[in-house]
Every structure is written in structure tokens, then in C-alpha cells.
Fold these 3 entries.
Entry 1:
Amino acid sequence: MNDYKLTDKFKYWLDKQLSKGTASIIKLMMICVLSIVIFVSVVIVLFKLREGFFEAFWDSLATIVNAWMPSSDDGEAGYIVLNTVTAIVGLFFTSILIGVISSGIEAKLDSIRNGNSIVIEKDHTVILGYNLGEHGLLNQLIIATGDKKRCIVIYTDIEKSEIEQDLHNNVDIPKNIEVICRHGDITNINDLRFCSIDKARVVIINALDDNVRIKALLAVSMLKKDYPECKANIIACVTDDEHLLPKNKIRDDNIIMLKTDDIMAKMIAHTATEPGLSIAFKELLNFEGNELYFEHDERFYGKTVFELAIYIDKATLVGVKHNGKVKLNPDRNTIIQEGDEVLLFEEDECTYEVRDIELKRIKDKEFRKSAKEAKGTLFIFGNNVLLETIIKELPSDIKDIVLVQHGEDQPSYSKDLLKRNNVSLFRGDGLKNLAKIASKAGHIVILADRTINEEDSDINNILLLMKLMDLKETNDYPYNVTVELNMENSYNVAMRNNKIDYIVSSNIASLVLAQMSENTELEGVFEELLSNRGNELYSKPLKPFNLSTKKDYSYAALKQIALSYGYTLVGYSHDDQMILNTELEDRITLDPNDRLIVLGRE
């Protein structure tokens, strides 16, 4: 039995029509207006107030459209009354029509302002996710582009106007680069179609949360199945192994997945005992200044690595790619064969020069550790997911590691970690015993507190750092400090010192994502550099190389000396500055505190 009244059915029908939007409302109004005009025209003809239906229809239509009130001279009283009603109805409908059209136009403009229109581009870079105030990734992509024309599409759930204002205030976007902002859900396949991912060059997942990253990655992967011709690489960072996709999925869908926590932990482990090394890592990772390029040149063929390393000016030979495999710091007697590519660290592509430098054959020598380089006790403040990897990746000659509780709600240390022979737990309040810790420390690491807000964690670490540096300067203690920060903005306000290494998680993730977006072949290179297996970057003092501060050396001579010990010279630090790719014939006088930045095995 139908319990609904006719009025209920009409209201339901009317509600459905109105919910369909502006076009449906205008259509409904047109039907109503025409119905009224026809009704009035029929009445006029029936009562013979006008001779023909067409004339009556036209007069009624003109009256309702213009909302024109008839005068006493326009006809009989009945005609005047009917057209007066028609004019009032016309006034009513015209007002509604103007309001509907205005609302529709405003809604469309809001939609355009929010970036809901499709992106008609090709060979563009798509960034899924954006964090206000974090500009490292975009800056790196801009630098990497150089003078080439490129379009970068930012797709995120943040309002388009907010992103554009943030970019306008903080990022210098050159004319050859177009940045398009769009608003939507990066995990929704239908929303992602607006980015023209099928025509994109690369898709970078830049969300903060791992779950969102994975959902966005899977959404892009599913979308690519609708476009078999799409060859775009998908690049994403995740924090741990649990969020890594199966290898067959990664291979089939051109996915590159990087573990940011793993990268962070390894960088902290490397810089903990090598002061200034964080700058060298950033030089390798970023596109500002010197970069890594694969070069092939007929002049390279037939030469040994030793010869080529010395002949190449304004660049550093760091590896050789043979049969598709890259070998870092190859044996000095390796001969460059036809078809091989050389991995150079240079200011820009093809900026190297091949010089004719006289070579002095130097015998291979054994690198001798200086007594002054004996590793002191390492104190680690705080506990987060990086800790175990850091301890695993530390140099083997770190004998004593002391864990200091830092933060009220920090997780407890694992029993397996405390069972290690060289690991002990500091008994007592670390903050109240800073002077005692400082007097015994050789190296100090401050980890981020991931149980609290990122900004609060950064401020706490900066305040602790300032206290430690005050104790160091007051008492002339030798320790260096490595600090983990979360936000790029925190690093911008932190103190600078050649004995402080900052590892900023958002910045490192941006650098790695940018590098992989430009050259996926470098994935294995960075993986080796950030491991304690294979070749690594080191910041070495002068004494083990038997270098004198009483005479000057050409940069070519320093290269040869480093090679004789099995190392590739990348640059050197002098007066708190990192100096890279000096010209071969430049004369250099070294200071006792200078250090060589080298690539090699320990």
C-alpha cells in the first residue's frame, strides 16, 4: 500500500531536480515559464482578447521575459489583468534566474580557483602531496631543470590559493618552469586522472604519512594499468620495511621505493664520527653546485682510472659504469673500455676538461690512522626507530656507546640492544648531568623525539645543542655533535658551527626524491654510499696521508696522493668551508685543521 501523499512525491521529485545543479534548475524554470506562457496564451485566445495564438504567445513571452507591466491602453481589462500576472511571474522568475546563474558562475570560479580542472600537459613532473613551508623538493627540481622548459604539477588536498601564496612568498620560480597547482584527493583514482599521469615523465609521492603514501602509490599504479603506453616512474619514500611493496610489483610498475628512516640512520651513523661530512653528503645529493653525471667520451677509452682521474679537470671521477653496472672508486689500474661510462662529480653536465698533466707514478700506500683520530665515547641522546640502524652502521672502531634518555615518553631501549658489549645505559637524568657527559664525550648524537609534535621536538633538540656547545666552548672539549631535526624551518634558525652536523629528515627526503626523479641509475650509488659496506665518504685529517702544512700542493698532486692510498679525492674542508673540484694546477697550502673529503673503503 502506498502511504505517500501526492505532495510528498512532488517535493521528492522537485528535490532531486534541484540537487542536479544549475543546468537542471534553469531547465526546470524554462519549462515552468513556457507552461505559464502557453496557458496564458490559450486563455487569451479562448476569450478572444487577441485574434491569433501566435500573437498572444509572443506578447505573453515578451511580458514575462521583460517583466513589463501593461498599461490601460494595451487592451481590454481581462488582457491587462492576465499580462499583469504574467509580468509579476516574470519578475519572480527573472530574479531567481539571475541568482541561479550568479551562484553557478561563482561555484565554477571557485572550482577553477581550487584547481579542479584537468591538466593538459605531457612529459611533466607530478608531485602528489605538499607540505606548507617545505620547499626543498621543488627547489631541487627547479635547479635540476636548468634552462629547459618543464611543467611541474602539484596535486594535494590543500587549497590551491594557499599553495600559490606559499610558493609566491618562498620560491623563486623561473620563467622556463610552469608550476600548476590542483586540489583533490591524492589517493582517489578518479581525482588523479586530472593530473594526466598517463602523459607524465615522473610521479613523486610527497605525502607525510606512510599510509597515505602507499594508498597514493597504489592508486597511481592502478591508474597506469588503464594506459599501457605510460612509462612514468613512480618514486616514493617510506619510513620502514613494513611499507615496502613486493619486488615484482616494484619492478612491473616502474616504482622506486626509498626508506627515509634507513637513509637518515645511515647518514647519522656516518657523520657521528666524521665532522663536516653532512655537508659533503648534501653536496652529493642536491642539484645546487656540483652533481653526479654519467659521461661517455672517446678520449676516456684506453686510459686507466689513475690516468683519467688526474687528466680530468673541474670534475672528480667517482665511478665507472661497465655493462650497466656502476663501480664506485674502482681500482686505479682499471682500464676504461669502449662503451663504458664514467661517473663524474661536476658543476654541470659536460663541464669537465681533459688536460695533459704529467703523472708521477706513486706506489700504493697503506692508510695509517692517526693517534689523534682514535674514536672517543659516543653519547646518543634519545631513542627512536633510527637507533638500532645507527648503532649497526657505526664504524667498527667505536668502542663505547652510551645511551642517554631524552624525553619523558621515549620508548624503552630493547634488551637485545643493551646486551651488546659496547653499549651501556647512562644512569641518571641526562639534562642534569650534561657537564659530566660533555667531559667524557668524543662524539654526541641527538635524536628527534617522535612521541611529540615535530616542531616541539626540534626546539628541544636545538636548546640541548646550545647547552652542549656552550660547555664545549667553555671547557675546550673536542666532541662534535650530530643533530636530527624534522623540519627545514627549524634548521634555518639553528646555530652554525663546523663541529655540528644537521640531518634534517624533510630535507633529506626531498633531496633523494629529486635525485631519483632525474636519474634512477643513481639509486645503487647512493645505497652504497649510505652503507658501511663498500665505498663510503670520509672526512680524513692530513696526517695519515703524510701531508705537510709547511709546503703547498697542486690539486692534481693531492689527487695522486689520495689515489695512492686507495681513495678518490672529492674535495677538502678549509676554514669551515667545503671546497670541491678545484682546478688541477691550483696551489693549495693546507692548515693543520683541514680535512680531505675522500671516497673509499675503510
Note: The first strand starts at residue 125 and ends at 128.
Entry 2:
Amino acid sequence: MDQTAKMKELIGRLQEAAKAYYAEDREIMSNREYDALYDELVALEEETGMTLAGSPTVTVGYEAVEELPKERHESPMLSLAKTKEREELKDWLQGKDAILSWKLDGLTIVLTYSEGKLVKAVTRGNGEVGEVITNNARTFTNLPLQIPFQGELVLRGEAVITYSDFEKINEEIPETEAKYKNPRNLCSGSVRQLNNEITAKRKVRFLAFSLVTCKPGSTEEPRPDFENSREKQLEFLKKQGFEVVESKKVDEHTILDAIEYFEKKIETYDVPSDGLVLAYCDLEYGKSLGRTSKFPRDSIAFKWADEIRETTLKEIEWSPSRTGLINPVAIFEPVELEGTTVSRASVHNISIMKGLELGIGDRITVYKANMIIPQIAENLTRSGVKHIPEECPACGVKTHIQKVNEVEVLTCTNEECQAKKIKSFTLFVSRDALNIDGLSEATLEKFIGKGFIHSFSDIFHLDRYKDEITRMEGFGEKSYNNLAESIEKARNTTLPRLIYGLGIAGIGLANAKVICRYYDYDIEAMKKADKEELSEIDGIGEVLGEAFSSYFAKEENRKQLEELLRELKIEKQPANSGEQKLAGMVFVITGSLEHFANRNEMKELIEERGGKVTGSVTGKTTYLINNDITSNSGKNKKAKELEIPIISEEDFLKML
């Protein structure tokens, strides 16, 4: 057994023992045995210079942030040219050797290590700018937090959640409507959490697929010799403790057999994949080919040919939404696609229906886009669109067909449509708004359908229906009590959360905070604000200003807010009193604090005084706040490099 495998085994045994002792009040090994295994792990970590994720020798702290800072990639992350033809891949090789590997279906991440430690993790984003998720990456189950190489190492890979872990997570969610749709969506949401304790629970893994930069940390440290080989680079990453995507070295004689190998394996492969990637093994040759405006020329993606099944369209189900759109969903005779039974597919809008000439009883072909999302490929009989509902299925009020950007959509004309209420209530009880556990969209739909809820304030009086709720399927005394406790807890909230929860078009939590601060948390002043004044607020603008003022111009909305204010206790916020001393300044906070309970408390103070807080040091940063001014941390180094002042808490408080 090699050293890395031995370390993984030891970590697993120590984690199991710790869980049994601390969480289950039982011992599966003696203290002496535990200490011996722990010491063996420490010795291996010192010998290899590597610390793997989950090691009991390190503790990953949990931290919540207000937002994920954005950062521009040093080199753009381009998409790959694609093909579904195997022979095209063979021709593409042009007699060269290449590496064939899985094209993983997760979230691409760029990692940076310095002096052997993970210092930064950034998502792909739009290819130019990504989100910094360093704290979240530290909780990935298999990511080394420390590696032997002491220089600067930048690599790319895919964050993924396996099918088996995805199923376990979904099994813990009782309501069908609340279950996650697929591993990729769950992974994307998990990686981009504001609280990395949630990320840790999702069992995200990282699989490396390419090395970007490898610079020695000192003149004494030798530069790794990759012999101009992509294969050698991947071997180097393995030696650093990274789990590397499975790959095979191929040429024009072996590539078709290699594709067949992956094609057979995907049937039981636990990691989501939507194809393969082929990249030249010769690094210099690949680099010499350059790139187009969209794609690099040193690699190409192979997408599996879509599995297509023929079936019969049984009906079109019209699904109303919070926005007023009523979306068509095709219901067809069930077919097996990519290992699952499929019987419905979204048609999106009337224009697509008309393009397909979709009628009940038509013979259609269906497939899964990216092996995940069911879609209609073709209508073989094309009998034509005949029945577009004239009344909304949810409320019975007249519908209307309108054109939006040249696309025909069906809308409900009733402002009080029950379907719109369901989506509005879902937002109102969401985490960033009133944060009420136990009120999923499915539960809200049941409560609204039974007449328990007509307005937001009715949520705080569900005790009137306790007997009926406890008798409902899926509910009971315990579920009701948990819900009641969550509702009582939600009575204490902040004004920005309440404003966001009202569902004003375009007003997110960040916008709500900006508006509240501008008006010194004076709700009466906010209700009377006109769009011109709102438009002048930095970060709001004309469109959001008009949406905000139009909302409060309606009597029913003002009445709804008044009813809510009678139910809620709004936390007092210090008034700005015109003291915008930090206006226009951008701060980064790092290290431990002495005068503030946490970084969020300091962040709120800065924002109240007109400043802004970001997560990474850039040319736009005004000050880096760090009590350890002489530290050699990454942020301190960056600040010194950009000649940005580093100040302590004491310095900051003097500024105020």
C-alpha cells in the first residue's frame, strides 16, 4: 500500500472512532490504539509533506459570509469544441498521442497552492470571472489542504457529488417536490454556499484534470520536469495527493477501443459524466496550435450520442408560475431513458409548441439533454396545436397570449392567482427572508388550497388550524410543533430580510440592505420614496427604483406590510445620521478580531458608514484590515504588492 492510500485508510479509521465516541457515546477502539494510529498519521504527514482533507490533525473552521467575492481568472477558461462522432476524434489526433479522460458533470474549480498550502479556490464562473470559494473548498472530502510542493501550484479540476451520495441526501428529504433534481445542480449549489458548514455536509469531491502553473518556491527547490508530457503532469498531481480524473493514453489505433471502455463503464460509474475529453499529450505542440475566439485547439470534447425513444403524447399539462407565466409540460407514455423512466418534458412556451406542431396523440421522440433533462427531439405526426387554455388552471381567470422578445407565452391575468401566491410565499419563508423551516412549496400549496393562508400574516396564526394540520398526510404532532417553533423564531427579524421577503421585483437581499441603510431603517420614509430619489442610490438605479416605488404605491401592498409589522419584532439598527465617513472605500478583513465579535459585525459597521467589504485584495481595495500587520499571509503579500495600506482594528476605529 502506498503512503497516500495508507493515510486515507488511517483518516477513515480515526474519523469512524471519533464519530462513535463523540456522537454515539460508544468506543470502537481504546485510547492507546487511537493515539497509535494518530501518531502514525502524523509521521506520514511529516514524511510526505501532505495533509489530506478530513485529517484529524487539522481542523477546518466553519465560516458564514454575506456574499462570495468575484475574481477575474489570470487566463480565460474557454469551452471545448464538441463532437459526437468517434471517427472525428480519430481524425483529430493527426497521428499524435493524446490523453482521453472523463468529461465530468459538476462545477469547474481553479485551485492555487502556495508554500504547500491551499490559498485560493475560484469557480469557473463565466470563464472570465469566477467566485472565490476557498473556505468551501477546504471542506471537500478528498482535497489535500497541504501538499509536498512548496512553490506556486495552480490546477483545474471538477467539484462533483457522486450519484450514491446524491441519493443519500435526497433520501433525507421527505417531500418529493423538495428533493434535488440532479447531482450537478446540488453540487453547484453546495460549492457556492455562503456557509461552508453546509458544503461540508454535501460530501463534495474534487477531481483534478489539468495543471496550469508550477513555479518553484525557491532557488533550492527543483522545477519538476514533466518531459513535455500531459501524462507526467497528471502523475505529478497524484503524487501531491490529488484525486485525478481517470484517463487513458491513446493514439489513432487505440482510441476507438478506449471510447468503448468508457462507454461501458459509464453505466455503473458513480461520478456524473456527460462525455469524454481528448487532449494532446505533447504540451508544446498543443500550445503551438493556439486557440479560436471560443475554443482551445489542444483539446476537444466528445459527447455521448443521445439515447432517443419514440412514444405517444398523452396530454399537455399547463403549469402556472409566480411570474404569471403558464408553462406547457408534455405528458407522454413512459419510456426508459439513460437508466430512468421518463414520462414528462417541459415544452417551455407556445412558440416551441407551434414549431413542433404538437397535438394530443402525436408520435414523438424524446431524449435527455446532457443525459439529464428530458426534451422532445421531434414530432413525427405533427397534428398541430389545438387546445391552449382560455382559463388559468389554478384560479380560473382568463388567460392571455403575449409576445416577449418574439416568443409567444401564455399568462394569467389575475393578480391574485393562487399559483402566484404559492411562489410568493415560498420566497417569503426562504432562508434569506423570514427563514421559516417546515414550509416547503408543497406544504404551502396544501395550506393555501385548504384556505389556511390568504396573506403573509396568516402564517403567524396557523395555530388556528392545529388539529387539521396534525391530521394531514405527512404531518403529525412533532412536525406541527417544529413548524410552530420555527414560525415563532421568525417573528424576530431584520428590516432588509422583511423587505426582500415581500417579493418586490428585482429587489434581492443586498438591494434591500442598501435601501434600508440609505433611509436609516425608516420604513415610513421608504414607503413614501419616489423612483427619482431611489434611482440615485448607488447600486439601485432607475429600474429597481421604479419597481420599489410602484410596489408601495399600491394600497394593498402597504396594508400587507402594516399587518406584518404587527406580527414581527424588527431588530433596531443604528441610524446613519449622515455619518457616511467610509463612503467610496473598499475594505478586506482578515485574521482574528479583538474589538468585534466576528467579521460580519465589522462588515455591517463599515456598510452602515457607506463603505464596502469584499473577500479578496484587488487594485480597488482601499484598506486591508489585519491585526497581524507583519504576517506573510497571502492577503498581506497581495496588499504590499499593490501598495495597499494594511491597518489594525485600532487604526480602523480611529478612522471612525
Note: Residues 90 and 255 are 7 Å apart (CA to CA).
Entry 3:
Amino acid sequence: MEKKELLNELDLVTKDNIARVLWMREFDAEKIPEDVIDYIKSDKNSAKSFGERMQYRLQDMINYPDSFTPSYKKRYKTFIKHSEFLTPLQAYVMTHLLGLDSSRGYEKIPDEADLTFPQHHVPQLGYQVGWHFFVGNCVGENNKEYGILFLLYRYSLLPPPIARHFGLSDLENQIFEFQLAVAEAGNRHYQAKPLAVAGTTGLVKFSNEPFSYYLGKNTARSLQNDSLFPIRLQGWGINLEEESTVEIQVDLTLSSTKDFLLQGNKGCLPCCCGIGTLYYSATNLKLKPNSILKLKGEEIKLKEGKFWFDHQWGNSLEPLGNSRCELVRAASNMVESHSRGWDWFMGQFDGEREITMAAPHRDENCEFYEQTGPNPPGVMTVNVTGHYIDEKSKATKISGHLEVSEWVKSEKSSDPNQYQITHTWYPNKWNFSFGEDVPEDIRSFTMVPIVKTGQSGFNASGAQYSEGGVYIKDKKGNLIGRGFAESVYYANGVKNMLSLSGLPVTPKMLDLVRKPSPLSFLKIRSFLTLAWPANRAKIKKILLKCVEQGLPTSMIG
């Protein structure tokens, strides 16, 4: 009787997420493990508790606002009225609609990175957000090529002190998300509908020595006690597009012979005034034989491939948040920024060489973002920075030039009933050029997707991105490598996020969640604070370090 009662107590979206994380097409209470049922039925996992915790946090931000920050009081009071009962997904999405002050209270980003392994392989739960990200290209015994994305993502719903106030452990304070996508070269791209489950469900566990990360039946597990690699990835999901339902499953084993790449400044990208990220990568993972992909009812044995791994975590990314330095918050009021997002790339070349590159979005390119008209944007040019990694794992910082010369429109969704099609234009061809820090034979190259229909997908929060496998070609059109290209925050997902969070999608609400501009009195107060001689010298020193650490201008204003 208890299991049948469970069917009635849960909302449909939560049941669907629990079913899919356990590899079930439909929720079946009889197949839920007994210990998981105890977690699901606990008070901590109730809609009333998620609502109570959200209301407490919103009131805390009203009572203790960040200095030198536009007021979100009206927004938060409105959210409180809609937060008496929240599902885990609604609470998760609503956190993405909070203001700049939402970065307060999380574990502070250190001034310098001090990454140690295996300690830092597992999720770092005191920070706001983090992910374990595997992408790569492979060939099946059917001689078809595939690009694969496998992502374990987590988000701390509450700053740790508030979580402890409610008796939540660090694990219980999380929302865990799983994403799986496959592109079949020459055909099309499939994303499994993203899933998100709360740490209060008992469906997530992880450990070190050996590393293991279980999100239901989706797993990443090291096969040796003293090393992250080789690692086995197992994942499953369903694409629910209107014209077809496609089941996707992977069972991949990856090995590595290279050292970890510490991204940015020795693992800081950046570490500045308590915000930023800590970040390392494994750049050259080899797919072991007998790995398997299941797609469209066919089981495909994979015979070779190369992958890339990122582990990144930090504060102030989702949503964008304030610096923890008061003077930086004052400075951000003087130079207003309207752009957010980034483009990221990895390339794997002959000779066991790799390049990783990134370009934060900038206001001068706003005409290329959120474009949904009938015609594609023109040619976009940006600067990129990153690392070149040689065959011996030596990493060299590089900078170069990128030209986006072609675009593709996003006309699909892994579940159109839940994630609305955005009709947004995304980059679809990238031309790179670098200087003498990069070997001459790969100094100039072009990336083109392995499919022509676009590779956009959704986060469970409703934000859209584009991510997929690419061919890398030289100026003569010769294939010289393969990689992955990522474009984030080209689409405006606010309407989708409002709908997913249970908030009304109205002009009034859309205006309420728009980024506020600092009022005149706040700008004057900021200017006078920064004009004080002692503060002027101090802010100059702080901002110089922020720039050296690679802090995007969108994170400081």
C-alpha cells in the first residue's frame, strides 16, 4: 500500500525524473528500491519543505542585501508568494532567476588553487555549482562516426549555512542533473531529455579510492584504486521529440596516459574576490575496445575514439553573482555589462597534441546573441585564449583569433512539451588562427560540425546551449583532427525558466526578472567610494589581479 501511496504523493515531473534516473521509461513504484522510497517519503523531500527553504532564503536576501547592488526586494517578495510549495525542479530553476546577491554564503574560492588528487575528483559540495564532463568522438564497427556528450552536473540549492539551519547535509542540499547526447556523423544530433533529481531522494552517492559517482543507474567509476583512469561511464536516456522517440545508452571505458591540465592560472579560472572556478582537465582519453553505444534500437560496438574530461566547480556562474569584494561591486556599477555566456572548444590533433580555447561573450558582439530572425547573423570575430598541450603533456598558454562564418538555427527539443523550441541562431563554422606558440601545421584551422542539423540541447533548468563533435580541417580542406565545440547563452531561456519554476509567464514577470540597472544614487555612491585615494589604489590592485586570473568582464561589470 505504501508504494501505491507514493504514486499519488509525487508530482508527475518528479516521478518522471526518478523513473529516468533509474532507467525506466515510466515510473513504477514497485521497482523503486526500499531505501530510496524512505528518502523520497521523508519530510526533507516534500514540496512543502522545498518551498519553506526557498522562502527562508529569499527572506534572508531581503533582510541582508549585498552592498553596492541594485535592489531585488520586489522580485524576491514576488517569488515568496509563489513558493509555498515547490517541486525539486521548480526550486532548482527558481535559483537560476535570483539576482547578483545569490553568490553570497557559499564556500569561498581560494586566492590560489591548491588542487590535490584524488581528493578533488569527487563533487565539491560547498560551492554553488560543479560538473564532471566527458565529450569525444568515436568510430563504431559499422564504420560510422559518433560524437558523444556525458555530463554529471550538480547545484547547491542553498548556501551551506542555510542548509545546515534546516538540518540538510551537503549531499541533501544538491540538485543533480544528468545529460547524455549523441550525434551520428552525416545524420543528426540526439539529446536525451535532461533529468534532475534532489539529493534528498537518496539516489546519488560518490566516493574516492576508487572514484565512483552514482546518479541512479548513471555512473562514472574508476577501475583502479589509485587513479581516476581508466574510468567506465554508463548512461541512459530518451529523446522525446515529437516525430520520434529515441533511446540512447552508452557503456564507455576511457584510459589516459597524460598528466592533468590545470586550467587558467594553475587551476584557477579565475580565483578572484571569492568567486570564479577551480578547473582541471584530462585532454587525451583513449576509448577502450568493447565500449558500446545503443542508438535507435541498434547496439553498436565502438572500436576507437578520443575523449576529453573536465571537472570544474565554483561560484557566481548560475546565475551570475556578485564579487565578495565590496570595492569590486562598486566598480561593477560604473561599467555596465549586458552579455553573458561563452564559447568553448577542444581540438585533438595527430601526434597526441591538443588545444583548448574559450571566448567569453562581450557586449561588442551583442548583435550576434539571442538572434531568432529569418536570416542568420553576419560574420562574428572574437579573441580566444587557452592552452596548447604537446605530446609530452607540456602546456603552453596561447591566444588567437576566431571568426564565426556560418550559423544554424535551433529547431528541435529533446521534449518540446517541457523545453520550448527557441529558433535561435548558433555558430556552425569556426575559423581559428594562432601565433608562433602553436606548431605551424595546426596554427590555422577550421572546425565544422559532424552533422548539418545543429547540436543544441537543454539544461534541466531550461537554459539552452549548443554542443557537439566537429571535424578539424586545414586551409586546403584536409582532415587534421577532431574536437568538440560549445556555445552557451545564445538563446534567451527566461520564458522557459519561468514556466519550469511555476512562475507566471507574463510581461510583468518578464520585466521583474530582467537584470536591473544601478540607479543614479547607487552610481554616485559607488563613484565617491572609488574616488577615495586609499580605495582607488586598492581597487586598482584587485582588478589587476582579477584580469591576470582571466576573470571575464561580465563577472565584474
Note: Residues 344 and 358 are 4 Å apart (CA to CA).
